[in-house]
Amino acid sequence: MRNMFADAPRTTLTAFYWAFLLYLLLPLTLMMAMSFKDANFVAFPIGDWTLDWYAKVMQDKQFLEACLYSVMIAAASTLAATTLGTWIAMLIVAEGIKGQVIIFALACLPAVVPGMISAISLRIFISTIDMPTGTAAIILGHTVHAVPFVVVMALTRLRSMPGNLVDAARDLGADSVVAFFRVTLPYLKPALVGGMIFCVLLSIDDFVRTFFLGGYRPTLPMLIFAKVQGGMSPEINAMATLVLVVTAAVGLYAEYLTRRARTR
């Protein structure tokens, strides 16, 4: 009897886990299934299965241009966020710097501020400095949002780094810049690669900040949103499925790199 009651919490947690997993995966599964539907509307029954919608998406010039534009913005914001986040992480672990806790809190603030509030504040900021909406504003917004994730990952790696590595480099005549590029940066590489991949995913999927900061040229989320306004169709499901598969694959690779960085 005692064992039965002891196993009850585990059974309940397992049931909640599978229910939550079903809650997450069922809509995605239905979306992917509808992308193979042979009709122009999204509803059951599916009938015949077809890949025509994927062929149509890959021939859609607007979709391809939105993909390239999103990748360009993601690359620029990732480069900026990685550079800034690495510098902030180095500042936090440096000796003799006061207020490191405050620096860390301020660096991580964009990750905890609601997306809508962040987007509105960024829109007010670019209006204040007379920056027009468009590519530069989107890159700024995505960079601000991505910096905390780079800081956390780089900081975790830096705190596991043996201090005698940099000391040895300096004993051999290397200055701070050479020691950083020859010792610290190679040690940070796994964490930075993982952080950069997460930044790319955040940028490509970011809709709210892009909506407030973007111009007339649509990114991928904005294009899908615009198409949804005209009604759902299997073509939109095919677009979303392609984005889901690519981002899931990249995210899993980033998780692999993160786990490897923690064990090395």
From TrEMBL:
CDD domains xrefs: TM_PBP2 (cd06261)
Coiled-coil residue spans: none
Predominant location category: membrane
Domain ABC transmembrane type-1, chain residue ranges per copy: 67-254
Keywords linked to the UniProt accession: Cell membrane, Membrane, Transmembrane, Transmembrane helix, Transport
Compartment(s) of residence: Cell membrane
InterPro entries for the chain: Bact_Polyamine_Transport, MetI-like, MetI-like_sf
Membrane topology annotation: Multi-pass membrane protein
Membrane-spanning intervals of the chain: 12-34, 68-94, 101-126, 132-155, 191-216, 236-254
Family per similarity comment: Belongs to the binding-protein-dependent transport system permease family. CysTW subfamily.
Name of the protein in question: Spermidine/putrescine transport system permease protein
Organism: Aminobacter niigataensis
Taxonomic lineage: Bacteria, Pseudomonadati, Pseudomonadota, Alphaproteobacteria, Hyphomicrobiales
